[in-house]
Amino acid sequence: MSPPTDQDASNSLSLDAHCQMLSEAMRDKSKAMTDAFKHFVQTFSALIGGGIALRLAYGADKMKAYETIFNWLLALGGLVFIILIIENHRSWLGYRRKLHEIAGRDQSGNPLVSAPNPRADLVPALYCLVIAVAVAMAIISTPLD
């Protein structure tokens, strides 16, 4: 007997189960985008708060040496969270396209699940914009000064 192939596995999955699996994956990706933004806010707040605490404890003169490292931490952290949001959104779009494709059409010929709407890009784009602006503003007016 030959081992099962991907073709055999996809044939054994019912349409309802496939749609449910895709819907759950989409839900997970949406949650991952929101979680990434929440984690950015927490990380950013910790970095800024830590920078302010260090400046108050040791003075601005002693903290000048750490300003470049601090700015790089902010920039790299922001970039990581932007990449997480973009990658999860890209994955969400793929699942949505697949769900639209396999869900089929009703009796009138209308799709049961609509194709991804360009408005779906709005929230992830806003998340990324807020991250970029927050990082840029923090670098411009670093709390270590």
Quick summary:
With 145 residues, this protein is mainly alpha-helical. 77% of the residues lie in helices and 0% in strands.
- Whole-Å distance between the termini? 71 Å
Q: Which structural class do the helices and strands define?
A: mainly alpha
What's the order of the H and E elements? Answer: HHHHH
Which regions have little confidence, pLDDT < 50, spanning 5+ residues? none
Strand portion, in percent? Answer: under 5%
| Large-scale geometry | elongated
Radius of gyration, in angstroms, nearest whole number: 23 Å
Bin the helical content. Answer: over 70%
Major sheet characteristics: none
How many individual helices?
5
Mean pLDDT: 90
Total number of beta strands: 0
What is the total domain count?
1
